[in-house]
Amino acid sequence: METEQKLDTLQSQFPEVSKDVLLELLVAFDGSVKQTKLMLEEQFGPREIKTEIKTEIKTEIKGKFSGIKRKADSGTTANEYCSLTKKRTFPQRQTSFKVSKASANISTTLYNKEQIESMVPYLRFYPNFLPNSLADSLLDELLSKRATFKDKMFHIAGNECHSNHQSTVFYDGDIPKQRYDNGFYHNSKYMAQSFTGNIRTAKFLIEDQANEVLATTKRHPLQVQSEWRASLCVGNYFHTNKNNLDWHSDRLTTIGPLPLICSLTLGATRIFRIRKQYGESPIYNIPLPHNSLLLMLPGTQEEFKHCVPSLGNSLVARHPKANETRINLTLRMSRPHLLNNTPFCPVCKSAMTLRRMFKKPASRGYYFWLCDGGYHSGKECPGFYFANLSDIEKPHAKLYTRDVKHATRWLAEDDHEAKTATEFHMEDVKD
């Protein structure tokens, strides 16, 4: 079968996927229609294949292996050989992200669960996660609520800025006075609303999956020690492919260190990008289709940045009803004691944001508090504390310090560069 015929065959089964993307996939799978179809079915669900297409695939497979001869004494039966040829190998699970300078910022696309979880062990991917009826009903509901999604408003370098996408925040129960952003955005009170019935149903299913995964891992003392329960859901509305979300890691002020974040995609299939916060690292592109769930495990926000780009090829597939629109629901568990004990800036008395150092190996891993005042007034403020999170679960605790010796630090297991770096010294922070 010629390449153009293969593309036509695949397009007839997956009309929502552009030919450019199909060609890229076909090349990635060495021209195999069968392997490409299997990958697409993992992303978009099974498709009936026409009789004439089945014949073409059989012919393709037969032709591919017709010239192979097996030695009589090899000890491998014909059936065993056929079984082996059907298996596709993927890169070994990646535990270290150090790469050569030549490969830095190279973009690699990960197409299915095995590739995603092998190359980025901090992620878990589940296509077709919700029952189809619930996913479709939830999408319809959110599309009808477009007016409740607002631009995020904040200041940078004295200028008022608006996000390039719209957001809203759903809360489980009454809307709290202290919201998830701790007042970071000017208009956060206009973005707050309560969980709907569909969101609550989805939340229960996502919580079960999240706790099943957490049960297989060893919990760090900084993590939530109880069962994971989503108390809020940040919704992001990307109306067209021109709407984007820049590189960032999610704010830790209300969800704490080493959070688990569950991201549900509804509508169009867009590219999600992720890369290491530091060092020479490749960029991984992950197409997230309708009704797919991506878990960002504890450590993801500390070690990685992610974004939703607006590149020409970042729209992988339109949705039959939503067209280019993609809605992303990220479920999070807030930590009330952390929010109640957030310090105020020693300089201007504004609220502070919890962050983690990552650039220099010697200081990497230390959590700290930084003044948020500049995001409201437009005037930068030098207010700073180290974070001492040893009493993070106590209702009344001092979670800050001026002495780096008492600061809380977390390093990834594979961060040998930071673990072997010269001991970090910093003069105690002055008022």
UniProtKB/TrEMBL annotation:
Gene3D superfamilies per record: Alpha-ketoglutarate-dependent dioxygenase AlkB-like (2.60.120.590)
PANTHER family per the UniProt record, alphabetical: ALPHA-KETOGLUTARATE-DEPENDENT DIOXYGENASE ALKB HOMOLOG 3
Boundaries of every Fe2OG dioxygenase domain copy: 229-335
Domain CUE, residue spans: 2-45
Organism: Ogataea parapolymorpha (strain ATCC 26012 / BCRC 20466 / JCM 22074 / NRRL Y-7560 / DL-1)
Family annotation (SUPFAM superfamilies): Clavaminate synthase-like (SSF51197)
Any one biological process term the GO annotation gives: DNA alkylation repair
GO function term, MF aspect, one: dioxygenase activity
Top-level taxonomic group: Eukaryota
Pfam family, one: 2OG-FeII_Oxy_2
Keywords, ordered alphabetically: Ubl conjugation pathway
Entry protein name: Fe2OG dioxygenase domain-containing protein
